[in-house]
Specification:
Blueprint (H helix, E strand, L loop, with lengths): L3 E6 L16 E7 L8 H10 L3 E5 L7 H16 L4 E5 L5 H10 L3 E5 L16 H14 L8 H11 L6 H13 L3 E4 L2 E4 L4
């Protein structure tokens, strides 16, 4: 099975949902800028839970794009060692996109996402019953921390994107109704508030 590498640009993204990776055989690199002296406790605890699969990379030098070059180097080095691996760069920096386009032309499987929950392998593919789907949705929403959808339309799109099968409008409405009946969400004038399990 191909290795999935997650390379996090910590100068640019501070993920609060690293624990979503614990159930997957991912290897995680968190790239920390030379001027960043601290990491949040939640991130440190989640990295510790990953054991050998989690690693910090403290970069040297503080020039513009120094961290980006480090990530590019690691992708190149790891791709040479494991040509079949998948690389997920977690960054809001669109400067990675030309590099990603070039790497893809060289048959290297790489993509950029703004958040861990955008990684396709973390999407739910085999949930069949509504209970399994609701459980998967709740897990995803908990993992999003404060970045949860605030509007019903956005929540609907988020739910659709989680599953590899295309949900009908009726299936989607049933899932939203189940979330409401379970008192996990409350909808008021198209806005959503949450009461999620911990």
């Amino acid at each position: 099975m191909a290795t999935n590498y997650v390379l996090i640009d910590f100068e640019n993204v501070h993920p609060s949902n690293l624990e979503v990776l614990k159930l997957h055989p991912f290897k995680v690199f968190v790239f920390v800028g030379s001027n960043q002296a601290k990491v949040p406790f939640d991130l440190a605890a989640a990295m510790q839970a990953l054991g050998d699969a989690g690693q910090y990379v403290k970069i040297s030098g503080s020039s513009k794009n120094a961290l980006d070059f480090h990530i590019a180097y690691y992708v190149g080095e790891l791709a040479a060692e494991e040509p079949g691996a998948f690389f997920h760069i977690i960054s809001r920096d669109t400067g990675f996109d030309p590099l990603i386009k070039h790497l893809k032309s060289k048959k290297i499987k790489v993509r950029r996402a703004r958040d861990l929950v955008e990684i396709p392998a973390l999407r739910v593919s085999n949930a069949s019953s509504n209970d399994e789907k609701v459980s998967a949705i709740l897990k995803n929403l908990v993992g999003r921390g404060q970045a949860r959808p605030r509007k019903v339309k956005t929540l609907s799109n988020t739910i659709k994107s989680l599953f590899t099968e295309n949900l009908t409008e009726q299936q989607l409405a049933a899932l939203l109704k189940e979330l409401e009946q379970g008192q996990y969400i409350k909808v008021s004038n198209g806005n959503v508030s949450y009461h999620l399990p911990h």
